[in-house]
Amino acid sequence: MSESTQQALAQAESEGKYIRKVRSFVKREGRLTKGQAASLEKCWPSMGLEHKNGLLDFTQVFGNDNPVVLEIGFGMGKSLVEMAKKDPNSNFIGIEVHRPGVGACLMDADAQEVTNLRVFEHDAVEVLADCIADGSLAKVQLFFPDPWHKKRHHKRRIVQPEFVESLRSKLKIGGVFHMATDWENYAEHMLEVMQASENYANQSPSNDYMPRPDSRPLTKFEQRGHRLGHGVWDLMFERVK
Ligand SMILES: C[S@@+](CC[C@H](N)C(=O)[O-])C[C@H]1O[C@@H](n2cnc3c(N)ncnc32)[C@H](O)[C@@H]1O
Protein backbone atom coordinates (compact mmCIF):
# COMPACT_ATOMS: atom_id res chain seq x y z
CA MET A 1 0.00 0.00 0.00
CA SER A 2 1.41 3.40 -0.93
CA GLU A 3 2.07 5.99 1.75
CA SER A 4 -0.67 8.29 0.44
CA THR A 5 -3.23 5.44 0.45
CA GLN A 6 -2.16 4.54 3.98
CA GLN A 7 -2.55 8.15 5.08
CA ALA A 8 -5.98 8.40 3.43
CA LEU A 9 -7.08 5.19 5.17
CA ALA A 10 -5.72 6.30 8.55
CA GLN A 11 -7.48 9.65 8.14
CA ALA A 12 -10.79 7.97 7.23
CA GLU A 13 -10.47 5.55 10.16
CA SER A 14 -9.77 8.41 12.58
CA GLU A 15 -12.97 10.03 11.35
CA GLY A 16 -14.81 6.84 12.22
CA LYS A 17 -15.43 5.84 8.62
CA TYR A 18 -15.48 2.16 7.84
CA ILE A 19 -13.34 1.27 4.84
CA ARG A 20 -13.97 -2.08 3.23
CA LYS A 21 -10.80 -3.44 1.67
CA VAL A 22 -11.09 -5.19 -1.68
CA ARG A 23 -9.36 -8.51 -1.20
CA SER A 24 -8.25 -11.08 -3.76
CA PHE A 25 -9.84 -13.96 -1.83
CA VAL A 26 -12.94 -14.95 0.06
CA LYS A 27 -12.07 -16.86 3.18
CA ARG A 28 -13.59 -20.33 2.92
CA GLU A 29 -13.91 -22.23 6.16
CA GLY A 30 -12.86 -25.54 4.66
CA ARG A 31 -12.47 -28.44 7.05
CA LEU A 32 -9.07 -29.74 7.95
CA THR A 33 -8.42 -33.43 7.43
CA LYS A 34 -6.90 -35.23 10.42
CA GLY A 35 -3.55 -35.36 8.61
CA GLN A 36 -3.59 -31.62 7.90
CA ALA A 37 -4.49 -30.80 11.51
CA ALA A 38 -1.75 -33.08 12.83
CA SER A 39 0.83 -31.55 10.45
CA LEU A 40 -0.14 -28.02 11.44
CA GLU A 41 0.39 -28.93 15.08
CA LYS A 42 3.64 -30.73 14.47
CA CYS A 43 5.26 -28.44 11.90
CA TRP A 44 3.93 -24.94 12.65
CA PRO A 45 6.51 -24.25 15.41
CA SER A 46 9.40 -24.88 13.01
CA MET A 47 7.87 -23.86 9.64
CA GLY A 48 5.14 -21.35 10.42
CA LEU A 49 5.67 -17.59 10.18
CA GLU A 50 3.36 -15.05 11.81
CA HIS A 51 2.35 -11.78 10.22
CA LYS A 52 2.06 -10.17 13.66
CA ASN A 53 5.81 -10.66 14.24
CA GLY A 54 6.58 -8.06 11.56
CA LEU A 55 9.71 -7.74 9.45
CA LEU A 56 11.62 -10.97 8.83
CA ASP A 57 15.36 -11.47 9.07
CA PHE A 58 15.90 -14.17 6.44
CA THR A 59 19.33 -15.15 7.75
CA GLN A 60 17.84 -15.78 11.15
CA VAL A 61 14.79 -17.61 9.76
CA PHE A 62 16.75 -20.00 7.51
CA GLY A 63 20.16 -20.03 9.18
CA ASN A 64 21.88 -19.14 5.90
CA ASP A 65 22.06 -16.41 3.23
CA ASN A 66 20.70 -18.40 0.29
CA PRO A 67 18.43 -16.57 -2.19
CA VAL A 68 14.78 -16.38 -1.13
CA VAL A 69 11.86 -17.31 -3.40
CA LEU A 70 8.39 -16.19 -2.31
CA GLU A 71 5.22 -17.91 -3.56
CA ILE A 72 1.84 -16.21 -3.25
CA GLY A 73 -1.32 -18.34 -3.01
CA PHE A 74 0.31 -21.79 -3.09
CA GLY A 75 -3.00 -23.68 -2.82
CA MET A 76 -2.19 -27.15 -1.46
CA GLY A 77 1.53 -26.43 -1.85
CA LYS A 78 2.35 -29.34 -4.13
CA SER A 79 4.47 -27.46 -6.64
CA LEU A 80 6.02 -25.28 -3.92
CA VAL A 81 7.23 -28.33 -1.97
CA GLU A 82 8.50 -29.92 -5.18
CA MET A 83 10.47 -26.79 -6.03
CA ALA A 84 11.92 -26.48 -2.52
CA LYS A 85 12.97 -30.14 -2.57
CA LYS A 86 14.65 -29.78 -5.97
CA ASP A 87 16.50 -26.59 -5.05
CA PRO A 88 18.11 -27.00 -1.61
CA ASN A 89 20.38 -24.00 -2.26
CA SER A 90 17.44 -21.59 -2.22
CA ASN A 91 15.03 -20.75 0.56
CA PHE A 92 11.27 -20.72 -0.02
CA ILE A 93 8.48 -18.80 1.67
CA GLY A 94 4.86 -19.64 0.82
CA ILE A 95 1.83 -17.52 1.61
CA GLU A 96 -1.72 -18.89 1.57
CA VAL A 97 -4.95 -17.86 3.31
CA HIS A 98 -6.69 -21.23 3.05
CA ARG A 99 -5.88 -23.21 6.22
CA PRO A 100 -6.40 -26.71 4.78
CA GLY A 101 -3.96 -25.76 2.02
CA VAL A 102 -1.38 -24.68 4.59
CA GLY A 103 -1.91 -27.97 6.45
CA ALA A 104 -1.55 -29.97 3.23
CA CYS A 105 1.65 -28.12 2.33
CA LEU A 106 3.21 -28.78 5.75
CA MET A 107 2.21 -32.44 5.57
CA ASP A 108 3.88 -32.80 2.18
CA ALA A 109 7.00 -30.86 3.23
CA ASP A 110 7.33 -33.00 6.35
CA ALA A 111 6.93 -36.24 4.38
CA GLN A 112 9.60 -35.12 1.92
CA GLU A 113 11.89 -33.83 4.67
CA VAL A 114 12.07 -30.38 3.13
CA THR A 115 13.88 -27.96 5.45
CA ASN A 116 14.23 -24.83 3.27
CA LEU A 117 10.54 -23.84 3.37
CA ARG A 118 8.51 -21.56 5.67
CA VAL A 119 4.86 -20.57 5.37
CA PHE A 120 2.45 -17.81 6.32
CA GLU A 121 -1.30 -18.33 6.73
CA HIS A 122 -2.24 -14.75 5.93
CA ASP A 123 -3.13 -12.25 3.20
CA ALA A 124 -0.08 -11.93 0.93
CA VAL A 125 -0.70 -8.22 0.39
CA GLU A 126 -0.24 -7.58 4.11
CA VAL A 127 2.70 -9.98 4.45
CA LEU A 128 4.51 -8.21 1.62
CA ALA A 129 3.92 -4.81 3.16
CA ASP A 130 4.79 -5.69 6.75
CA CYS A 131 7.12 -8.70 6.84
CA ILE A 132 9.37 -8.59 3.77
CA ALA A 133 12.33 -6.22 3.61
CA ASP A 134 12.79 -4.05 0.53
CA GLY A 135 15.18 -5.43 -2.10
CA SER A 136 15.36 -8.84 -0.42
CA LEU A 137 13.73 -11.38 -2.77
CA ALA A 138 15.34 -13.30 -5.64
CA LYS A 139 11.98 -14.32 -7.07
CA VAL A 140 8.24 -14.02 -6.54
CA GLN A 141 5.89 -16.67 -7.91
CA LEU A 142 2.19 -16.26 -8.50
CA PHE A 143 0.80 -19.41 -10.09
CA PHE A 144 -2.81 -19.64 -11.21
CA PRO A 145 -4.19 -16.84 -9.02
CA ASP A 146 -7.98 -16.68 -8.71
CA PRO A 147 -9.05 -15.26 -12.08
CA TRP A 148 -12.26 -13.59 -10.88
CA HIS A 149 -13.99 -14.25 -14.18
CA LYS A 150 -16.83 -11.75 -13.96
CA LYS A 151 -16.09 -8.23 -15.06
CA ARG A 152 -17.57 -6.71 -11.92
CA HIS A 153 -15.11 -8.81 -9.88
CA HIS A 154 -12.00 -7.85 -11.85
CA LYS A 155 -11.06 -5.37 -9.12
CA ARG A 156 -10.44 -8.39 -6.88
CA ARG A 157 -7.68 -9.70 -9.12
CA ILE A 158 -4.46 -9.58 -7.13
CA VAL A 159 -2.44 -8.28 -10.10
CA GLN A 160 -3.08 -4.55 -9.99
CA PRO A 161 -0.73 -1.58 -10.55
CA GLU A 162 -0.32 -0.88 -6.84
CA PHE A 163 0.32 -4.53 -6.00
CA VAL A 164 3.01 -5.05 -8.66
CA GLU A 165 4.71 -1.84 -7.61
CA SER A 166 4.83 -2.91 -3.97
CA LEU A 167 6.11 -6.30 -5.10
CA ARG A 168 8.84 -4.69 -7.22
CA SER A 169 10.20 -2.87 -4.20
CA LYS A 170 10.63 -6.23 -2.42
CA LEU A 171 12.59 -7.84 -5.26
CA LYS A 172 16.34 -7.42 -5.57
CA ILE A 173 17.48 -5.61 -8.69
CA GLY A 174 17.57 -8.46 -11.23
CA GLY A 175 14.96 -10.41 -9.26
CA VAL A 176 12.06 -11.91 -11.21
CA PHE A 177 8.29 -11.83 -10.81
CA HIS A 178 6.90 -15.01 -12.42
CA MET A 179 3.16 -15.35 -13.06
CA ALA A 180 1.19 -18.13 -14.71
CA THR A 181 -2.50 -18.37 -15.54
CA ASP A 182 -4.80 -20.57 -17.59
CA TRP A 183 -7.32 -17.79 -18.11
CA GLU A 184 -6.55 -15.81 -21.26
CA ASN A 185 -8.32 -12.66 -20.19
CA TYR A 186 -6.31 -12.62 -16.94
CA ALA A 187 -3.08 -13.19 -18.90
CA GLU A 188 -3.92 -10.13 -21.01
CA HIS A 189 -4.71 -8.15 -17.88
CA MET A 190 -1.38 -9.22 -16.29
CA LEU A 191 0.51 -8.19 -19.41
CA GLU A 192 -1.23 -4.83 -19.56
CA VAL A 193 -0.53 -4.07 -15.88
CA MET A 194 3.10 -5.15 -16.16
CA GLN A 195 3.79 -3.25 -19.36
CA ALA A 196 2.38 -0.08 -17.81
CA SER A 197 4.49 -0.57 -14.70
CA GLU A 198 7.85 1.17 -14.80
CA ASN A 199 11.17 -0.39 -13.92
CA TYR A 200 10.30 -3.94 -14.85
CA ALA A 201 11.66 -5.59 -18.03
CA ASN A 202 9.76 -8.35 -19.75
CA GLN A 203 11.98 -11.42 -20.14
CA SER A 204 9.97 -12.53 -23.16
CA PRO A 205 11.83 -11.72 -26.40
CA SER A 206 8.46 -11.09 -28.08
CA ASN A 207 7.50 -8.79 -25.19
CA ASP A 208 4.54 -10.92 -24.15
CA TYR A 209 4.48 -14.51 -22.86
CA MET A 210 7.14 -17.13 -22.16
CA PRO A 211 7.22 -20.90 -22.51
CA ARG A 212 6.89 -22.61 -19.10
CA PRO A 213 10.39 -22.65 -17.60
CA ASP A 214 11.60 -25.97 -16.11
CA SER A 215 11.61 -24.29 -12.72
CA ARG A 216 7.79 -24.34 -12.66
CA PRO A 217 6.52 -27.90 -12.15
CA LEU A 218 3.71 -29.03 -14.43
CA THR A 219 0.63 -29.68 -12.28
CA LYS A 220 -1.86 -32.53 -12.85
CA PHE A 221 -4.52 -29.96 -13.48
CA GLU A 222 -2.36 -28.34 -16.14
CA GLN A 223 -1.53 -31.68 -17.80
CA ARG A 224 -5.24 -32.34 -18.09
CA GLY A 225 -5.73 -28.84 -19.51
CA HIS A 226 -3.05 -29.50 -22.12
CA ARG A 227 -4.83 -32.67 -23.23
CA LEU A 228 -8.04 -30.70 -23.58
CA GLY A 229 -6.24 -28.07 -25.63
CA HIS A 230 -6.41 -25.35 -22.96
CA GLY A 231 -3.74 -22.67 -22.92
CA VAL A 232 -1.41 -21.61 -20.09
CA TRP A 233 0.41 -18.30 -20.14
CA ASP A 234 3.65 -17.66 -18.24
CA LEU A 235 4.85 -14.09 -17.70
CA MET A 236 8.28 -13.27 -16.29
CA PHE A 237 9.35 -9.73 -15.49
CA GLU A 238 12.68 -8.65 -14.05
CA ARG A 239 13.17 -5.74 -11.68
CA VAL A 240 15.57 -3.45 -13.48
CA LYS A 241 15.50 -0.43 -11.18
C1 LIG B 1 -6.74 -20.78 -7.91
S1 LIG B 1 -5.79 -21.10 -6.47
C2 LIG B 1 -4.24 -21.65 -7.14
C3 LIG B 1 -3.42 -22.40 -6.15
C4 LIG B 1 -2.02 -22.86 -6.61
N1 LIG B 1 -1.13 -21.75 -6.87
C5 LIG B 1 -2.10 -23.77 -7.82
O1 LIG B 1 -1.52 -23.42 -8.85
O2 LIG B 1 -2.72 -24.83 -7.72
C6 LIG B 1 -5.41 -19.47 -5.83
C7 LIG B 1 -4.99 -19.52 -4.37
O3 LIG B 1 -4.57 -18.21 -3.97
C8 LIG B 1 -4.99 -18.02 -2.64
N2 LIG B 1 -5.02 -16.55 -2.42
C9 LIG B 1 -5.79 -15.64 -3.07
N3 LIG B 1 -5.53 -14.40 -2.66
C10 LIG B 1 -4.55 -14.52 -1.71
C11 LIG B 1 -3.87 -13.57 -0.90
N4 LIG B 1 -4.12 -12.26 -0.97
N5 LIG B 1 -2.95 -14.02 -0.03
C12 LIG B 1 -2.67 -15.36 0.06
N6 LIG B 1 -3.29 -16.30 -0.68
C13 LIG B 1 -4.22 -15.89 -1.56
C14 LIG B 1 -6.33 -18.71 -2.56
O4 LIG B 1 -6.67 -19.05 -1.24
C15 LIG B 1 -6.11 -19.94 -3.45
O5 LIG B 1 -5.67 -21.04 -2.69
TrEMBL record:
Classification via InterPro entries: SAM-dependent_MTases_sf, tRNA_(Gua-N-7)_MeTrfase_Trmb, tRNA_methyltr_TrmB_bact
Pathway: tRNA modification; N(7)-methylguanine-tRNA biosynthesis
Binding-site list for substrate: K150, D182, T219, K220, F221, E222
Keywords: Methyltransferase, S-adenosyl-L-methionine, Transferase, tRNA processing
Keyword field contains tRNA processing: yes
UniProt catalytic activity: guanosine(46) in tRNA + S-adenosyl-L-methionine = N(7)-methylguanosine(46) in tRNA + S-adenosyl-L-homocysteine
Binding, S-adenosyl-L-methionine: E71, E96, D123, D146
Listed EC numbers: 2.1.1.33
One GO MF term: tRNA (guanine(46)-N7)-methyltransferase activity
Organism domain of life: Bacteria
Function: Catalyzes the formation of N(7)-methylguanine at position 46 (m7G46) in tRNA.
NCBIfam families given in the database record: tRNA (guanosine(46)-N7)-methyltransferase TrmB
Protein family membership: Belongs to the class I-like SAM-binding methyltransferase superfamily. TrmB family.
Protein name listed in UniProt: tRNA (guanine-N(7)-)-methyltransferase
Lineage of producing organism: Bacteria, Pseudomonadati, Pseudomonadota, Gammaproteobacteria, Alteromonadales
